[in-house]
Amino acid sequence: MKFGTFVPQGWRLDLVQIGGDHNKYQAMKEGAVRAEQAGYDSLWLYDHFHTVPDAELEACFEVWTATAALAEATSRIRLGQMCGCNIYRPPALLAKITANIDVISNGRLDVGLGAGWYQHECVAYGYPFEKPAVRIGQLDEAVQILKGMWTQDHFQFAGQHYRVGQGSVRDYRGQTVELAGAINRPQPVQKPHPPLWIAGGGEQLTLRTVARYADYSNFMGSLEQVQHKNAVLDEHCRALDRDPASIKRSVNINVFLGTSGEFDKLMRDCGRQESDLPGLKAMLYPTEAPALIDRLGALRDQARAHTIIVYFPDAARGHSLERFAAEVIPALR
Q1: Where in the chain are the domains?
Q2: Would you identify the CATH topology of the domain 2-154+184-332?
Q3: What Cα–Cα distance (Å) separates residue 250 from each residue in 62, 138, 190?
Q4: Of 6, 142, 288, 307, which residue is the least packed, with the fewest Cβ within 10 Å?
Q5: For residue 204, what is the DSSP state?
Q6: CA proximity to 217, closest of 137, 108, 306
Q7: What's the Cα-to-Cα distance from 58 to each of 9, 11, 119, 145, rounded to whole Å?
Q8: Long-range contacts for 277-280 (Cβ within 8 Å, ≥24 apart)?
């Protein structure tokens, strides 16, 4: 079993108590270095622009610029996004960004992608927010473009939503030429390409895209919920004549290793309202190591969980990250 952790990034108000935006970045970077030193396999970032549950005047670091910076700040740990929002960047541009970061990190990038879900943020930044079937269709085409631009010298694509590397254009000399495909250099270090994580649990559309293209799936929820999503994904794989075992399964969880009172104080210090606390507590996995080990062992043994990705709400100023690495991970490796 492998383990990843989110860095404190601001989206979930986990940098509020740190003064100055540069200091907030330093706290995010220090979180990444601590995760590497503690022995985690991967570190993860969200792809969001505004804080939640409300859009506050608080720092929320953009995923790809932050990932590039953390690639320089670390040397061993893998770097992922859970998950990138397909709406926010044209897929050809994303192929360029990700190839660059895979080179910068010397082959440590995992690429997470989803169809996008947060209308508030999407519209605020000027992106059209289409109905789910359209967004998932865009995701399906975007994955094809990523894989093509990661692996081909001259890539062409014409779909319902995107067109890449085709058409008559004026070149640098002012001459009219016919495009022979988009070029993406440098290409990724990892061959044939960086691992592709497709997040989301939509059973008819999203999981069909996962079955077609993904190296990893990602789910949240109880053991029974993850088992159900796995079963649906397996059926899509069989319909496509793909071995379900070729897709590794991952699960996101929230962990705070401390008392209920300590958690309440942390959330209040982050600006959370009293009415938020019961819902936030309900999202947490057990707060003691033995119970955590039992829950995660069940995910491993009964739901084929290959990777657990942990969000620690106290990652910027607490000890859950180190305690989990010392008390939980060794029992489940």
Answers
A1: 2-154+184-332
A2: TIM Barrel (3.20.20)
A3: 23, 23, 21
A4: 288
A5: T
A6: 306
A7: 11, 9, 19, 34
A8: 280/313
pLDDT given for residue 72 in this prediction: 98
Query: Residue 158: how many CB atoms within 10 A of its CB?
Result: 11
Element (H, E) at 218: strand 216-219
Output the CA–CA distances (angstroms, integers) from residue 71 to 100, 101, 110, 117, 138, in the order listed.
11, 7, 12, 27, 28
Cβ–Cβ under 8 Å, residues 177 and 171? yes
- Give per-residue pLDDT as tens, 212-253: 999 999 999 999 999 999 999 999 999 999 999 999 999 999
Q: What is the mean pLDDT of the chain?
A: 96
| CA-based R_g, the chain, Å | 20
∠ CA(283), CA(287), CA(293), 5° rounding? 100
Q: Are strands 2-6 and 157-158 parallel, antiparallel or unpaired?
A: unpaired
Measure the CA–CA gap between 68 and 161, rounded to whole angstroms.
Answer: 28
Give the strand pairing for 196-199 and 111-114.
parallel
Name the β-bridge partners of 163.
Answer: 158
For range 297-324, the mean pLDDT: 97
Contact, 77 vs 106, CB < 8 A? no
The DSSP annotation for 1-20 comes to -EEEEEPP-STTSTTTTS-S
- The Cα–Cα gap between 55 and 269 comes to 17
Residue pLDDT, tens place only, 96-130: 999 999 999 999 999 999 999 999 999 999 999 99
DSSP H helices in the chain? 21-38, 63-73, 91-104, 119-124, 132-151, 206-213, 223-239, 260-269, 277-282, 289-303, 320-327, 329-332
Sign of CA dihedral 152, 153, 156, 159: positive
Q: What angle do CA 139, 305, 72 make, to 5 degrees?
A: 65
Report the C-alpha gap between 325 and 105 in whole angstroms.
23
Beta bridge partners of 45: 81
Phi, psi for 307 (deg, rounded to 5): -135, 135
Q: How does residue 12 score in pLDDT terms, banded at 50, 70 and 90?
A: very high
